[in-house]
Amino acid sequence: MGEVTLKQIALELGISITTVSKALKNYKDVSPKTKAAVIKLAEKLNYRPNSFAVNLRTKESKTIGLIIPEIVHHFFSNIVNAIIEEAEKKGYLVIILQSNESEELEKKQIDLLLSKRVDGILMSLSNNTTNLDHLKKVIANNTPLVLFDKISKLIDCSKVIIDDRNAGYAATEHLIKCGCKKIAHFRGPLNPQNSIDRFLGYKKALEDYNMKFDRSIVFTCEKVNFDEGYNFAKKIYTEHKDVDGIFAITDLVGIGVVAYFNEVGVKIPDQIAIIGFSNWFMASVITPSLSTIDQPGFEMGKKALKLLLKEIKAHKKGKEFKYKTIVLSTKLIERKSTAF
After folding, report:
1. pLDDT per residue over 167-215, tens digit each?
2. What is the DSSP-derived secondary structure letter of residue 148?
3. Among 52, 211, 214, 271, which is least packed by CB within 10 angstroms?
4. What's this model's pTM, rounded to 2 decimal places?
5. In a shared domain, residues 94 and 173
6. 1 inside domain
């Protein structure tokens, strides 16, 4: 048996399609007896409303698209959990897509979500995204868009971020106050705004404390992973033995640094102090535990979803929506990798 329709129910009961529709929606102008008969037959035939037809009538799909660079990532998994939790409360389903740090895949995913007529899109950009035409397409389509964490200042939409420049400054300043005299930075790729801002925060802290900026001890992580932290730590050990502090762009990179120095017998923090970023669970259980900047992923997810729903609601009512940028606070967590 194919999909059961309102017409089939109406024919079997000898009533109009309109009456069947009203009965299922509990309209007051349908008698209790007719309502009961319609509901009983609908349950018997396992009737399900045609969601596509409903979407055409209401002009909403009750679905939200979410594009993130990585799902298996402590920070992003917290964001996903928050978004799903808040969306369910409001009756929305979330389509989760992973860009794998690929601009091309990101473009395809945007096209997919627009074809599915999602009510809005939440997105953290890939590290490799340089062309922003696919984001401009979302806005031109009048689909609400909220960027979070990895954003572009060139796109006019709502955003939820942290003050990465201030957080990068705080991480570097912590190493300076721990007595470090030469601090390396394992930065992120050149494109994402958060990578740029953390680097600028590092540079500004050095300047404010009258420490020389040395480009030769700034290493760029392209994949931002454990191996890059490990390999760049090896370069520091073999080529820059006077470096006594490292600010890593993420905890995963920082954990790679700790692993290398543990392997070669360099004492942390006595010989070199290390600080990461994000506050992954692993940062707290490695030896020595890794100092870090706590990034509020769960709160970021909640704020981003709520901001998107406000814009969706405004669109539905035909009202103008003023874009907002929400900046969340971070905090420094000192652990044994910097505790002298």
Report:
1. 999 999 999 999 999 999 999 999 889 999 999 999 999 999 999 999 9
2. E
3. 52
4. 0.82
5. no
6. no
